[in-house]
Amino acid sequence: QKEVEQNSGPLSVPEGAIASLNCTYSDRGSQSFFWYRQYSGKSPELIMSIYSNGDKEDGRFTAQLNKASQYVSLLIRDSQPSDSATYLCAVTGGNYGQNFVFGPGTRLSVLP
Amino acid sequence: DADVTQTPRNRITKTGKRIMLECSQTKGHDRMYWYRQDPGLGLRLIYYSFDVKDINKGEISDGYSVSRQAQAKFSLSLESAIPNQTALYFCATSDSEGQGPLDEQYFGPGTRLTVT
User: If you average pLDDT over every residue of chain B, what do you get?
Assistant: First the structure.
């Protein structure tokens, strides 16, 4: 079992729709969770961080964390073509210590 | 100017050559990391350093070495490059004094390395 899993996609959504990206992790002791956006050939860019169970909203982005289910998600409302990118989930803490473990990423395509 | 810079941005080298990738940061962060990224495999940690005198191996350190010359500089060396080291390499930094329980990482622009 991989430590951090994501559907590789591509996930295609129409412009204006809600895109839902999911991530599961294996270490129950994990403490911090991050979503990065990466455009092709570019470096990852931090979008959201979440540390506690529940929802965290920032503009069109909402991160959701459920530690009991070892699940973290990212919702993108009113999706735009400019949101088309690969989204990386990263987890740290627990057995990972202070290192980040990244998932393989989900490729999102927002269709005009 | 970018907070985290990497040089070179692109490099083509031959099998067996020694190559160094350099990373500099102006963010004042104490922690620095080197990752490689391969299609479908995500980011994998090569080495990390929590301060100038602290160097640690990551998930895939074989075939690589690092040097932390100063708080702001962290270089990655391939002593004898091989074709399966062809990848996109990223440097990242983080701050141990950050606001979260474990702070975010900030990435450089990447170095695309091709070993022929």
Answer: 91
